[in-house]
Amino acid sequence: MDDSFFDLNDEPEGVGGGVLESSMGGSASKVGATRTKQTNFSAYEDNVLCKSWLEISCDPVINTGQRRESFWIRVVNRYNSNCGRYPKRTQKSITNRWDHIKAEVSKFSGYMAEMIRSNPSGMSDADKSVAAAADFASVEKHNFTLMHCWKILKDEPKWMELKRKMDMLQNSGSRKDAPPNGHHILDLDAGNSAPSTSAPSSSSGKRPMGRDAAKAAKKKAASSEYVSKIHDLSVQKIELFKETEGERKARLDEIVTLEKVKVEEAREHRKMKLDIEREKLALERRRLDMEAEKKKEEAEKKEKEEDERILAINLDQCQPLQRMYYQALQEDIIQKLVASRCHGPGL
């Protein structure tokens, strides 16, 4: 590649803001003297910056044949046209923020790659990202707050290509040309030339631990804890299973007992209903007998009163036909009365 061009991902050094800010209608000194401190980047602005960087760096027409100054001018213009209601940013602000995103996301990518290589059983992709973030916080002594940027950049071909380059660089053992943030950095601004050796604005300048040391520290801090947690979870699952089996057996025994009680209660209920029905039938029979007896008594009473009335008729005062009628009735009454008293046939 000609020295007059650079890879789109090359470190934005020396692009202080002279070109962009002259193009925006003011000198760098004038802007620096009059501008006020801008607010911190929000997650939305980080996403816009990452997407703008990807769109410009992956431009199929210009591709990598861009001068450094024009590349970052295009990134800044693309960002400011897509930032919406958020404030527009200067080139210096954007490049500084990109340096921070690049360093942090590169470190986290190393931890995530190690987590994927170890492939703990029973962990989903989301669980692995959480575990990688925990490893990041344990080693780097601060939380990883750019997960939204990592999700945008992680599957991009440019990222994967740079990751392979960084892996090759690490495997070659060239410590002098390695990025200053240790084996966890995948330099997003590294091109086909040697990686930039300037540290990001957020780095502390302290020599970071190498790949083997970082792996050993991470495994020492996490392996025993992870194995212990897995063991505790296994024991808890076994105890829970045993407890569940015991509870299930007790519940089944309780259900069987309840069913037996229900069957016995149903049997007793049926027996009680039958007894009640028998009593009802007996009471109804008694009632009918009493009604029949009452009717019989009433009929006998009426018959007796009628017999007495007939016997009390004076035949001498009756007409001849009436006399013959009532005389016959009186004779029948006398015979019936004699028969009921004598209890003998023919009498």
Automatic annotation (TrEMBL):
Residues 143-333 form the No apical meristem-associated C-terminal domain. Residues 193-204 have a biased composition (Low complexity). InterPro entries: NAM-associated_C. Keywords: Coiled coil. Residues 1-32, 170-221 are annotated as: Disordered. Residues 266-310 form a coiled coil. It comes from the Eukaryota. Residues 1-13 have a biased composition (Acidic residues). It holds the Pfam family NAM-associated. This is No apical meristem-associated C-terminal domain-containing protein. It comes from Urochloa decumbens.
